[in-house]
What we know:
- The protein is of the alpha/beta class.
- The chain has 2 domains: 4-128, Rossmann fold (3-Layer(aba) Sandwich), CATH 3.40.50.2300; 137-232, Arc Repressor Mutant, subunit A (Orthogonal Bundle), CATH 1.10.10.
- It is 41% helix and 23% strand.
- The chain has helices spanning 12-24, 35-44, 63-73, 88-96, 109-125, 163-174, 182-190, 199-212; strands at residues 3-8, 27-32, 51-55, 78-84, 101-105, 137-140, 143-146, 151-154, 157-160, 222-225, 229-232.
- A 5-stranded parallel beta sheet has the order 2-1-3-4-5, with helices on both faces. It has a 4-stranded antiparallel beta sheet with strand order 6-7-8-9, with helices on one face.
- Helix 6 (163-174) packs across helix 7 (182-190).
- The mean pLDDT is 86.
- Calcium ion binds at residues 10-11, 55, 57-58.
Amino acid sequence: xxxxxxxxxxxxxxxxxxxxxxxxNGFDVREAETGEAALRIFMEEEGRFHVALLDxxxxxxxxxxxxxxLRKANDKLGIIMLTARTQETDKIAGLSEGADDYxxxxxxxxxxxxxxxxxxxxxxxxxxxxxxxxxxQVTMGEFVLNHRRRCxxxxxxxxxxxxxEFQILDFLFSQKGNPVSRERILKQVWGEAYxxxxxxxxxxxxxxxxxxxxxxxxxxxxxxxxxxxxxxxS
Length: 234
Ligand code: CA
C-alpha cells in the first residue's frame, strides 16, 4: 500500500531535503509551507495520510496548533514533530498535544526515513488509512461512545474499553443497526494484513458483553445475528 506523508515546514531548503528523501524511499508526499496550508491539504484529501511531519516554528499558526487540530480530526494519524535542539520544552509539549514522535534538527536522511517508516508501519498495523472523524461522540440510546476519551458511557457511567473493544463498538455503531460479519469486523479493526482467526472477534464481543450488558448470557444490545455476524441494538 502507498504510504502517504504530509510535510509541513516553512524553510524551503529543509522542506525540499525532507520531501526528496521521502520520495526517494517510496513515500507519496504532499508538502505545505504553512500550518494553514497543511490543515487545508489534510481536509481536502479527507485525512488520507499515514503520517504528518510538522515543523514547530511556522510563520502563521505554529506546529503545536497544527498537531492539536490534526489529532482532533484523526486519532490514527502518525504525527512527528520537527524540532530544533534548543526546543526541549516544545518537544514535550508536542508529545502532550498528541504527537507520536519527534526528530531533532539537524537530522540525517537515514534517521528521518527510519522514523517515518516505523511510524507508518504502526499506523498501518492499526488498520486502514485513517478515517476522518465525524464527531467527538456518538449516542445510541443510553450509550454514548466518547471518541476523545475512547471510552463508553452507559447512563452517564464510564465503561473503560481497550483500543480493540472501542474500535469494534465504533464500527458497529457506524452501521446503524445493520449486521456485520466477523470477517468485516476483523478487517476493519485488525487490518487487511491480519492473518489470525476470526475467533478473536468473538472473544472480544464476549468481553464487551460482560462490560456492557446486564446479563452477558442474554444480551440486549450486542446482538448475534445467526449466519451474519453481529449488530448493535439500542
Ligand atoms: Ca520553521
